[in-house]
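Re: export button greyed out
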Amino acid sequence: MIDTSLFINAFALISLVYAYHHDRERTKEALIKAANSFIHIMPTILAIIVFIGLLLGFIPPARISMLIGEQSGINGVMMVAVIGSFLHVPALISFPLTASLLDAGATVTIAAVFITTLTMVGMVTLPLEIREMGRKMALLRNGISFCIAIMIALVMGMIL
Amino acid sequence: MKQENENQKVRIPFDVIALLVLLVLTFALLSAYPEKRDPVTAVFASYLLEMMLILPAVMVIMGLFSVFVSDKAVVKHLGQSSGMRGFFTALFFGSLPTGPLYVAFPMASAMLSKGARISNIVVFLSAWACIKMPQELVELQFLGPEFMVARLILTIIFVGLMGIIIEWVMCRATEKVSEEKSSTEH
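Workaround output, generated via the alternate export path:
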């Protein structure tokens, strides 16, 4: 875990130094943007982390694993796929959320289907997508994404 | 980008309200069940630490890319390439660390109207949605390298297939429409 964050921070630092050499003004602009997005996303991040704390602290692991663990089978996968399609959270948040499901005893399949539907299928943004891309293409993309999310998850469950 | 800012402005109050409600709820629950205090705070602290170790860096990377790589450059590159090169260009530009998915829809529709291939646009949108670079970094942090790599490779394969399928369906539909049109004209 520490290695990963070291790598990410090193990468950010190198990009930053390179960008600063290249164009100081735009680098400043980028940093201001970064600070803004950081502040904007903080309330959501904190809320999700508090929620994860409650989830793991209060709901007994046996209950969670009944819903989304080995015993839940294909019904559990379908249920999580539908939840993931309707939830609308910033993509970055979906990973700690998914990690908490795994900590609580969810299967890899469930974790994968949750991430993929959460990010690729957007029922909340569907009206916008229909307006921009047309009804047919938007429905096709979301429908097929839902199906491939399940396929990706099933394969991941088999290999991991 | 302006649209994104406006959207964020609208969203802040809701975020803050949700956070406050959760905090009140947490406070109430923890007062009622003092024995849960330690496990809940431990989980909270460990997730918060993991997030804070990487979030500033992820934000810097996203900020740099959104300033240095313009939408216009993406539209230009993606509109031109085709075949396998088109697939990988779409994958590459889709996974660059910029903005949420609803920012990509207008770009995608602009590229479509300029004649980009439907399959490439589908790949672009899907890559944007679920294998963006900053997301992959957070995934690496929270879910580990095996999970990340497996999901990445599977997603690329399936998204490629989806692009081909959607293009096939859409093209068949337009052919049918134009056939009907030409038959009514005759």
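Chain B touches chain A through 77 residues (CB under 8 Å). The button fix ships in the next patch.
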